[in-house]
Amino acid sequence: xxxxxxxxxxxxxxxxxxxxxxxxxxxxxxxxxxxxxxxxxxxxxxxxxxxxxxxxxxxxxxxxxxxxxxxxxxxxxxxxxxxxxxxxxxxxxxxxxxxxxxxxxxxxxxxxxxx
Amino acid sequence: xxxxxxxxxxxxxxxxxxxxxxxxxxxxxxxxxxxxxxxxxxxxxxxxxxxxxxxxxxxxxxxxxxxxxxxxxxxxxxxxxxxxxxxxxxxxxxxxxxxxxxxxxxxxxxx
Lengths: 115, 111
Hints:
heterodimer, A: mainly beta, four-stranded antiparallel beta sheet, 11 strands, B: mainly beta, six-stranded mixed beta sheet, five-stranded antiparallel beta sheet, 0% helix
């Protein structure tokens, strides 16, 4: 079945630094990738949608200059949290799908802690 | 962003009991999905529903797509310890390729 690998699974960074999270589709070509943020005991909130080779579409209220998304290939999307602050600490999850399929496959998530 | 309302918010049951949870929306969706999330993991798809009125089973799980397209339910029969986790519904609009997630139902099994 479709597998999405997310790396790292957890990261601790200092306030003011940037962190990059990778999302890879291992056995299919992901024409569209999605990035979610999940705070403790809350649901998944979509941050942005990215299509390979084009700019990401951000949801209302999500700062595109703070959360940089790059979907340079059909198997890799990256989310960079720039100038991270403690309030950015959260669980970030990516999801991928391919055109014509009904499936959304999720990565295992990245726990970001900003200290 | 928009969220779907799930109920109950949490459930405490004994092993072997049946479980029922539902999801409602003010908007119509063309696809309903049910996911389970374990602590520190991403959601895993349990059941996908594509037609209004559709009733689909996956082992001990049964889910239905409401006729109005604004609701769905998930039943789990004869619960076992590994059923513990958070269950999310998600809806997808046709032509709007993204999911809207429900508020989640946390299932706990009491020893």
